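[audit] Reproducing an earlier prediction to check determinism. Same input, same settings, fresh worker. If the tokens differ from the archived copy the diff job will pick it up downstream; this log only records the rerun itself.
[audit] input (496 residues):
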Amino acid sequence: MSLDTLAQFLDAIDRAGELHRISTPTNVHLEITEITDRVSKMHGGGKALLFEKPILRDGTLSAYPVAINLFGSMRRMSIALGVDSLDEIGARITQLMDMKVPDGLLGKLSLLPRLLEVSKFPPRVRGGTPSCQDVVWQGDEIDLDKLPVLHCWPEDGGPFLTMTAVVSKDPARGIRNVGMYRVQQLGKRHVAMHWQRHKTGAEHMRQMAERGEKMPVCIIIGSDPASMYAASAPLPPNIDEFLFAGFLRRDPVRLTKAVTNDLEVPADSEIVIEGYIDPAEALVVEGPFGDHTGFYSEADLYPRVHVTAVTMRKNAVYSTTIVGRPPMEDFYLGHATERIFLPLLKLTTPEVVDYHMPAEGGFHNLVFVSIDKKYPGHADKVMHALWGQGLMSLAKVLVVVDKEVNVRNPVEAWWVALNNMDPQRDVRFTMGPVDVLDHASRAFTYGSKMGIDATRKWPEEGFTRAWPKVIEMDDATKRAVDAKWASLGIGPLGAG
């Protein structure tokens, strides 16, 4: 059964022993961040936290509990998407992509269930008053200071909404986009929208500016967990994130029309901030912000959002996240994307066996890739292919290893890579776009990248010596020691 609301998700992770409730009054200014940071760095990501008595910046008690670190473990990420293993979703995508039409009527009919699986998940608009509009603030009632928006780090430019799903539409084609962008609160009725130039929301704003029109937006805070995740997923611009969320949860997302604009939002959202951007207005200063790299990103100019309404459920919960020095919750969201989108990566680079972005790399700084090497220079081909793939184009360091290497274990991957590489022979450098948050690049969003060919070298690649074997005990001895291990009194394997 799919999880339709944030409340259901909280109940599910509570039953799984993955939620810790905090009744001690805790300040939204820095304190919640410090507690969450310590918890998220515990083994396995720590527990999700529900702060039941957050203290607002004016010293009063908030009416809305704060839920944080919701997706911050492998177990909770799987619960959010209704699977035992995130690889199950990748397997579903692989099956759907393998759509070779068989011969004969019975063979063709056998495809129907898979075709119907895709077609039955489009989002559906629901009539009546949705629960996300149990409470509606408009006009002078709008006061974002009543929400427990976190001021995360000491040098942040202000309080930020972080776990968002921002809805906008392509003005020409009407295609919806839902993106997870950070949003800085500027006052009671205004926020700044941080969408980088390559994001779909920013493209929608450029189109609205050309038309001389104001741009409606909705900022969703808390909904069904599949939709919350989908907002972070690197989908193509023409794929509706709510359709993808429906596929993930095997149940359509139920939408409703916003109160003050024509956009649609999940009907059971916790909180929705409705508003508009006037592209003719001057941009406003947004930031600095303590970012997922572990460093502050600099202040820059971004569009102002005029808030026209705030709607919410009765007894709404404010969901949020923090980013900073890894590992943190965003690592687990990124890991889900890594697992789910592997089959799509293999469409264009089928020699890829697996890949992994370790937490220490902050996603874009380091990517391990294992390949089924078939010819000399194969690792170079894969490097350049990956640098041409969407957000993978921002990868600063790509390390390519052979297919048997477990890239999900960075210790093993580095051990193999550092043994297999000759720095002058095997390191490649190239130029291209880099992450906006890369403070070390030679220019804003532009810099160099490094590829390391850590595969076994072939004679055609200039290696004429014998390639050594990896040290490994024979199977018979392993089995014999396994059988007598308990009698040795050393303790369980892996303990200590």
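[audit] rerun output stored. Observation attached for the diff report: The chain has two domains: 6-319, 349-461.
[audit] end
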